[in-house]
C-alpha cells in the first residue's frame, strides 16, 4: 500500500513521482529526494494551471511559484514551509555532491505526503482523503531491485524532464485562449475548492517537525554535520552564577529552540547549553 494512493485517480503524474520517491528512500536517498521535488513541481504546476485564483509570478521555476503570495495564501503557512523543505532537499540532491542520508529522504517524502494531502483535500473533485490519514514510514521498502543513480545521471534526467514539461508562462499567458477542456476543469476545480474551504481542515500537518528539520537543514548547508551529540549540547565551565540563577551560553545549536542568543538565564541548575539558528530572508 502506497502512502500516496489517494493521488492516483486525479493526479497520476504526481502519484507516479511521489511513489518513486517513497520506494527509493532507503535504497537510494538521493534519487528519492529528486523524485520528491519532482512530485512537488508537478503538484504546484497543476495547481497553477487549474486554479484561476493563483497568479503566475515573473518566473515559473519552483521557488518563484511557491513563494508567490496567492499560492502561499492558498496553501497556508504549514504547506508552504513543507514545500520549501522539499525544494531545498531536492536541490541539494541534484546540485551538491554532499552525501544524502536516508533520514533526509524520509523527511522529503513525509513532507510531500502532507503537501499531497493538501492538494487532494483542496482540489479533489471525486473525493477527499480522510482528515485522519497518517504517513506510514513502515510501508517504505528497505531494499529495492534498482541501481543507485549518480549525481550526473540525476542532473541529466532533470534536464530531460524540464525539456518535456509544458511551460506555464506560455500556457497561461493569454487566458482568453484557454481551451474549452481546461476552462471546464477550472470551473470544477473552483467549485471543489470552495467546498473544501467551507469545511475546517483538521489534518495534522506536523508543523513543529517541519520547523525543527528546516533549522537542521540550514545548519547542514552552512557546514554543520550535526552527526555528533556535541553539535547540539555540551557542558561549559567558568560561567558566572548566582545562588538562585545559573547562566547558559548558546554555543551549541539545537533545533528544538526558537531563538538565537549569546547567553540566557535559566532557573534550572546546570550548565548545559542550548540555542538555535533562525532562517534569514
Overview of the molecule:
Helices cover 51% and strands 3% of the residues. It is mainly alpha-helical and 281 residues long. It folds into two domains: 5-221, no CATH class; 228-281, no CATH class. The model is unreliable at 243-281 (pLDDT under 50).
Give a topology summary.
Blueprint: H1 12-24, H2 29-50, H3 62-67, H4 69-95, H5 102-123, H6 151-164, H7 168-172, H8 180-197, H9 207-221, E1 246-249, E2 263-266
Antiparallel strand pairs: 1-2
Helix pairs in contact: 1-2, 1-5, 2-4, 2-5, 4-5, 4-9
What Rg is obtained from the alpha carbons, in whole angstroms?
22 Å
Low-confidence stretches: 243-281
- Fraction in helix: 40-55%
Number of helices: 9
Q: Work out the strand percent.
A: under 5%
Mean pLDDT rating? 81
Number of strands: 2
Largest sheet: 2 strands, antiparallel
Structural class: mainly alpha
What would a concise description of this structure say?
The chain is built from 9 helices and 2 strands, in the order αααααααααββ. By secondary structure, it is an all-alpha fold.
Task: Give keywords.
281 residues; mainly alpha; 2 domains; globular; disordered C terminus
